[in-house]
Amino acid sequence: MKNKNIENYFEKFLPHSYIETLEKSKLNNIGFNSLISKRNKLINALKLINVELDKLAHERQLLISQTTFIKKKYIPKVYYKQYYKKNQSTLFSHIIIKYHLISKTIYFGKVDSLIILFSNLNLQLDVKNFKEKIFPLLLPKVLDFLSNIKNEAEFKNLKIKSTQLISFIIEMENNVADFENNGSLLDYIKSLS
User: How many alpha carbons fall within 13 Å on the CB side of residue 103?
Assistant: First the structure.
């Protein structure tokens, strides 16, 4: 402490420019030490965050595995496929339902015949847009139908025929006719989502 007092005593006799430099040096040291202190606090905080992140990452990985299994087994997936049979120019379609780790394929029909059958929907259906326009209408009905299935055995024993799938759309035609009195077809389709 005595050395500091001696330094302060002699600083009074230094030229003004040197005194300014010494003051700047003191302020610089204070700022430097302050930033070092802040950095150390942040480094310690980051270490704590990393420990928590490691814990959460491990838990997250376990939960992802569990939710993937749950979604795969208990949330139905419905797909629409179009295909040509060997040596035929007719386009066929089917619906694939995956539920309770079981997959069922249901013949939906010849696309040309279905376009004619659903012509009352006024969707300007053709072979190219059939999937994009019909599947979004069919999907909510199929999912609603599957909501009554409680377990694997019920799903295994479930017999779904193309006539049922077609009836979902035809039922919609009737609802559309009722709905058109109060709104547009587009509004009705949006209400299904």
Answer: 7
Domain boundaries of the chain, sorted by first residue = 2-72, 77-192
Q: Helix, strand or coil for residue 84?
A: strand
- Closest of 86, 138, 90, 134 to residue 112, by C-alpha: 90
Q: List all residues 6 or more positions away from 91 whose beta carbon is below 8 Å from its beta carbon.
A: 82, 83, 84, 110, 111, 112, 127
Q: How many CB atoms lie within 10 A of CB 130?
A: 20
What is the C-alpha separation between 54 and 192, in angstroms, rounded?
Answer: 43
Q: Which two tokens stand for residue 168?
A: 């979902």
pLDDT value, residue 180: 47
Q: Residue 100, by phi and psi: left (phi above 0), alpha (psi -120 to 50) or beta? A: left
- Which pTM was predicted? 0.59
Quickly list H helices, 75-151.
111-117, 130-146
